[in-house]
Amino acid sequence: MVPFRPSTFANEDEIPFKETQMKRPFLALLICIVLGVVILLSGARPVRAGNNTESPTLFDVDQDAAADYCAKKGGEVDIRSPYYNTNDNNPRNWVRLSGTHAFCKFTSLKDGSRIHVLLSTLYTKQPSLAALAYYAEVPYGGTCSGNPGSCYCSQLGGTDLFGGINPNGGGWVQMSDPVDTVLEACIFPDMSTIDSWGLTYHQAKIIRGKNLRGVLRYPDPYAK
Fold first, then answer.
1. Cα angle 66, 69, 75; round to 5
2. 39, pLDDT greater than 70
3. Which member of 37, 128, 207, 214 has the greatest number of CB atoms within 10 A?
4. Within 10 A of 62 (CB to CB), how many other CB atoms are there?
5. Widest CA span of the chain, in angstroms?
């Protein structure tokens, strides 16, 4: 077969259909390349669901601003670390786990009781499960045996257990705190946190430390 040579034709009208057939694969390849570049560039930009620029969420709270807010409301910043095996009477046998959490600790001048709330839970204006649980005051069912604070936390959908139900125990530790050395913090699926006993007493209309209504930046949606 004689190879096709476009230069042998005097004008465009004489160019055979075969040239058009040869151009189509090239055009298809070009389109594929352009589409690939567009997809690659669009994938490089993160996709965000919703607009969270109005106020900080639990995951982007300014910790310094939250700490200042805690102090202005009469609280004290309390940095704690997670430990396992805290039911052992010898702290040397406790197992230090990774990470730390910053809580705001409120202490009652009247009776010395306390309540701890995670700084991010305290400071965010967005709804959180811990704040909603505090406001809702769901009655304690009393159907499980053991620590009532831990049972109530589980009833609300949170957990303060380390490794599930076991004799070893665990909690958020501040060795320099002789009163609440091991804190039972009720952590909810959205990572918002208030201590288990604070929640448990509050549903019974007993305020520990300080009434968090008017302190939590997310307002009570149940208020009349």
1. 105
2. no
3. 128
4. 13
5. 105
